[in-house]
Amino acid sequence: MTRASVLLAFLLAVLPMPAAAQPAFAPFAARDLAPGVHLLATPADYVGPAISNVSVIEQSDGVVLIDSGGTIAHGRAIVAYVRSITRKPIKAVLITHWHNDHPLGIAAIRQAWPRVRVISTAATRTDLLGPTMTSVALQPSEHFETQLLNEAWQGVVQVRGLAAAPSTTAEQRARYERYVASILDFARGFRGTYLVPPTETFTDQLLLDDRERPVRLMFLGRANTDGDAVAWLPRQRIVMSGDVVVSPIPFGFGSYPEDWIRVLERLKALDFALLVPGHGEPMTDAAYLDRLIATIRDIRAQVGALARQSVTLEQVRERVDFSAQSAIFGTTPRLRAGFQSLWLAPMIENAWKEARGEPIVQGEGLLPNGPAPATSDRARRPRR
């Protein structure tokens, strides 16, 4: 199975959002975070592939977006929402990092506003145009569309098999049926999707100035990827973190443990009033960041000590004990399974490589290809 297949099934059970879905903007539900600052996110009853949070910031001469979803259909929903609240154009989109559920709505946005600025860090642009991107092209691709439809249908067959099992409860069966509808809708929405590369990059920070809502785009260091960007609204004290912060379970594939701690500390130093994660509920304090810092430190301490003694990765996995961290993050059986597959498993490898001085390369860490059972105890995410 792929890393994507692990992530997607887990998201059948977590990443809830409290707002009700508006059909006109599906799969997103909209809410206001502050005057002129809005959030598009999947609603409480959503069951399906992970879709990034999308922040919408109104400025005097246009709208700034933070991320854009994972298909051209998501981009169309974003366009419809922006047109429902203002006549101003979308003037800029920040791609926080290269994972597919964040940049692939831009094609529809650029169709609506051809002069839109597409912005990322320099490292993210390199990732987007490099070997990490294996499921999307720079123009609509029948090959990739067929590939995704085939994978979606494999998932549907598996889920319907699970739903038909005698042990499946009525509640689980209803969840599986919602998943089937969502994955087919996602696959249909992928038709015509293509990657729009960044038109400009930055290496430290970039100011999108405005009298009322200035937005400072910043690269605080490597964390979840090698090019994570965050957006800071100093007047509102709102920060959009991308996948540097994801709740209730963080994602740890191809990440940089030591650097990640420093980035989280820098986020805390902003003294934000609200943090919008890449996925999950906005946060009004740094408590969750403290938990992330603690688990990364614990992983580095346990894994690093063994790695420096030339203990193999497989032996390290057998010897470490993260039961205390699992109890903090895994408050339900599904969350415990997700914490193991989405966080501990990849982060142990990251920390092992870090301690041995081995490179952590974007796009590595994929499991062998093949379908995965879409149970509520596993996780899936859109393909990279």
What does this 3D model show about the protein?
The chain has 384 residues and is α/β, with parallel strands linked by helices. It has 2 domains: 3-132 and 194-286, Metallo-beta-lactamase, Chain A (4-Layer Sandwich); 141-191. It is 40% helix and 16% strand. It has helices at residues 3-10, 72-85, 106-112, 122-128, 142-164, 170-190, 257-269, 287-307, 313-319, 323-329, 333-356, and strands at 29-34, 37-41, 54-59, 62-66, 90-94, 117-121, 200-202, 205-208, 215-218, 230-233, 238-246, 274-279. The strands form 2 sheets. A 7-stranded mixed sheet has the order 1-2-3-4-5-6-7. The chain is globular, with a radius of gyration of 20 Å.
Please give the domain count. 2
Oligomer: single chain
Mean pLDDT across residues: 89
Low-confidence runs of at least 5 consecutive residues: 1-22, 366-384
**Main sheet record:** 7 strands, mixed
**Terminal-residue CA separation:** 13 Å
Helix share, percent:
25-40%
* CATH architecture designation of the largest domain: 4-Layer Sandwich
What fold name stands as the CATH topology of the largest domain?
Answer: Metallo-beta-lactamase, Chain A
Secondary-structure element pattern, one letter each = HEEEEHEHEHHHEEEEEHEHHHH
* Name of the CATH superfamily of the largest domain: Ribonuclease Z/Hydroxyacylglutathione hydrolase-like
What is the CATH class designation of the largest domain?
Alpha Beta
Strand order of the largest sheet: 1-2-3-4-5-6-7
